[in-house]
Amino acid sequence: MIALRARAANVQLSAPLDRTVWLLTDATTATAQRKGRACVVRDDDDFRDGYGLYLTHDPLARSPNGANTLQLPPLLRHLEAGDVISVSEDGQQIRVLWRHRSHHNHILLTERCDHYCLMCSQPPKRGADDWLLRDAFELIRLLPRTTPGIGFTGGEPTLYGDDLLRLLKLCRNLLPFAAVHILSNGRRFSDFSFAAGWAAVENANMMVGIPIYGAEPSLHDYVVQARGAFDDTVRGILNLGQLRQRIEVRVVIHKQTAPRLVEIAEFIARNLPFVEQVALMGLEVTGFARANLDDLWIDPVDYRDDLVEAVRRLDRRRVRTMVYNHQLCLLDRELWPFAGKSISDWKNEYHPECLKCGAAHECGGFFHSSKYRVSPHIKAIPPDEVAAPKALLPLS
Amino acid sequence: MSKFQAPEAFSPSSASWKLLPFRFERLNSHVLLTNMVGERVAVSESDFAQIADDGLPADSELVRRLRAAQIIMQPDEKAPLELLALKTRTRYRTLPESTGLHIFVVSLRCEHACPYCQVSRQSSDTDRFDMSTETARRALDLTFRSPSQSLKIEFQGGEPLLNFPLIREIVVEAERRNAQLGRDLSFVIATNLALLTDEVLDFCADHDIYISTSLDGPAELHNKNRPRPGRDSWERAVDGIRRVREALGADRVAALMTTTARSLDRVSDIVDCYVEQGLTEIFLRPLSPYGFAVKTKAYSAYGTDRWLAFYEEGLNYILELNRKGVGLTERFAAIILKKMLTNEVPRYVDLVSPSGIGIGALVYNYDGDVYASDEGRMLAEMGDETFRLGNVHTASYADIMLSDSLLQPLEESFAASAPMCSDCAFEPYCGSDPVYHYATTGDFVGRKPLSGFCRRNMGVFKLLIDKYETDPHARAVFLDWAGR
Amino acid sequence: MTEHQLTFDASMHSADAIQRAAYRLSDRLSCDLVAEGDTLRCTLHLPPESGDVPSVVADFRNEVLDQTLRERIRNETQEVRNLILALAFSNTGLVDASES
Fold first, then answer.
1. What does the alpha-carbon distance between residue A263 and residue A279 come to, in Å, rounded to a whole number?
2. Where are the domains of chain A?
3. pLDDT digit string (tens) for C36-46?
4. What is the ipTM of this complex?
5. What CATH code is assigned to A5-98?
6. Which residues 461-480 on chain B approach chain A with CB closer than 8 angstroms?
7. What count of CB pairs under 8 Å joins B to C?
8. Backbone angles phi, psi at A187, to 5 degrees
């Protein structure tokens, strides 16, 4: 598990920090650019002149001419050139915004939310936290133009309204090659003018991920703990569909939704077949999911057949379907082509059984949080069984 | 953590349910409900009584199922209306795209003498029954006048290969005109393949032409149904299929079967024959009540129920084959399943409402007469010109498409207004067939309790629904067929 | 041909519903309908091949009930059905339900 925030081990500020967001460089970085950059210094030879902030691994024998310096704690020694951090005004708190070598950078825009999902992995907070949005603007200005992908999450990002749209436009302009993925409960899009504003960002490389947790309001509204949510979310998806926006529908499978999984899949297949893809996702046991575990935990083996049926209902209606966050040994073989390696690498772990498993390299592994609960049916698949698939239902 | 509210907090506060449009049918042990776009909910009789008596509670398993299918809603909801509107619009989306299929009867001559054939037996040494170049050009005028983006030109007869030079001319001329117009143009030759030559194959390869042929089953059955001099119709058809697959590709040839009294006990042999010939699709069709079929009493030889038994046996056998890994599709089921399981409506002119006559297909006979459907042409061969819309040499597109001969049957047979159809829960899966009903009863609507069309279709709907609900393997196959 | 008389309370069942029921069962019976004040008098004619008379009559009565229910559903949902069709075939398809 890779740490994304920590206290500085030592802070030496000779002058106030003139910014919060910093792009990291080190001795190998070949650039004369200094603005907005912080230099990572691992030993005395790495010191380079002219930076507004230095990040050191150990107290240096020679202090860099009184420049602002933070000593990184062991937890943050993984930081390297190309990463981006946010530093508090007093230099004490360091937050990692961007990991250069990660394929799944998700930027937290706010912890505020108008939902209160039973299984929320990022439990909502009340107070204003606009600095997160400001940091995101700064981050985008620092990232290389060739950045291949970026994600935005919350809380509920659309609570920022037009400010969110400004952020996305900036993203499109400065990071033209980035696949942009935003998570939202979709309710604000039921206001057609907001949906139109979203469409006006005109980024063909932008997709919104919106969850649906029921085939009718009672169940969905219960899971997200908000009356009227289903009606707004469905209408939001319809508006986005009409505006030809790219939509991913997400369904988190747990004890409340699993009994209705086939119905939910059928509802999406019949009512929202125009969406770009549907992600059926395993539960991440963190945040509220931990607190509500008794009401949420279900062994994937117990909904194994329903999951196959749900995928068939979608896939045969030509809705692109993915199964995320499920270990391959818990999935029916028919679903392996639909399973993706979806767990962000900073959360990714493996079970001892996996060491002997022939399919480990294909499998997404586990969330770090699965130490709290994992299926007793995790079992290594013998390599020869992985290679020789049994007959699948013919599709031709 | 006690901030979480119980499920009850999210159920409707009152049982003031608003009904959305739905229809129902009582089946053996339950009641089938369908919503405005044909989505199904099966409920027990006692559950149905709750709906009928306005006795639905604020929350229950039944209530949730009815909500999910947009059969009931709460007064303050908006999504159900938008969803039904969108799905309705999707179902009718192809309606403005008339006319997609244009049938050119390039010759009435034929060397076969099939008893169920709907065209007269003409010997092959007369040129009186071939379409002329001028007629063909005028028919192409009407073809391209249709607004449909996709245009399929199908050559029929008699045996169209007896007038292959005209087929060649029409294809070349159509492609020349289309170079400016940019439609999605496709060609099919419906031929018995007995006269297939390499010259024909080369031409088909050059112009991406598909072949549709007749294969009624194993040799002795097929040849009895389809006599020709030499008694080798089957051998030639099978050889032709092989040659087409080799020269044009396996997906370029399809076969249709016609069911006769002889076929009824042989369905698995017929299916086996299709599989042996490498065909991936079979269409288990009923015998139509037109042409020679009536003249030779072939139509009265069996009733709808007998055909339904034949169909069920055939479908079971095909499902069994699928279970063993043989991917054969049954076309009639596939068409219906698409309507049942998706929001798309296939452009199969005989099972759609409004009917596909004229707006789905137009037939240009060898003499220039224009018919609303192939069956309409066959009726004319028997002396009844009810479905003749005009002649290419004298009538304009407007004359033809706005003629009473077309508009009246279209209007009268529109299922949503027809007696009994308008109340029928299966209506979204069904269609109108004004030509069939006219031929059998004398009016465009017929009387559905006595209609073989109705009885047959209902039998198939119930069979498919029952299999879908009770057999997971059949369900998987059906989902696959519906998605093609 | 067997005849059987049935009367229906005209305040509970419409002539239309009874006619629709008769139409649906027209492969097994035919029907004459006469309005007499508050009642609708229905004379069923059942040919011998209809089978068991009481059961055909029972089917007819049940069908009348079903047709009455269908009529009620049609009436109750007519407005929303027109609204949905208007939505379906409007240009944007997004006319707000409360506006129309």
1. 15
2. 5-98, 106-385
3. 999 999 999 99
4. 0.91
5. 3.50.30.10
6. 472-473, 476-477, 479-480
7. 66
8. -70, -35
